[in-house]
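Quick start: load a record and inspect it. Here is Peroxiredoxin type-2:
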Amino acid sequence: MAIQVGDTIPNTVLTYAPYNPDHADVCSAPQPMNTHDAFKGKRVVLFAVPGAFTPTCSETHMPEYATRAAEIKAKNVDIVACVASNDPFVMDAWGKAHGVKDSVLMLSDANGEFGSAIGLVNDGTKMRMGPIRLARFAMIINDLKVEYLGVEPARGVTVSGAASVIAKL
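Running the structure step on this input writes:
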């Protein structure tokens, strides 16, 4: 069963390559990030995409958040984060391609642990993308509790887009 509004997010480990302005052309060493440690006592907007550099993710989903991250943070949000099934190096490169710097935390769920724990994964084998891909969704998390959850019912970006999330803040 998928996570619901009011539920506590699972305590899992994601990875990320910390933003380093002195190394714009290379990725930093990936670091583990425990979801409970990182999000405890914080308000977080977390959006998930099936894959970095894919058409809808790169043309629509990420650009909305990249350009509106400051607006989101101005609404009492501590962290804006993107998570995908890609490895942390790909996530870092994708963030750099969109110029997010440190405005959006680029998280990797390469093993599908977080997505599986919240019940929001899809099987990508038919598209040659691997057995575990995150569904497209966005959530507002407040002190580990889900305040808003928008899971896309079909292709495209509607309930998980930045505008929809901002309207819920």
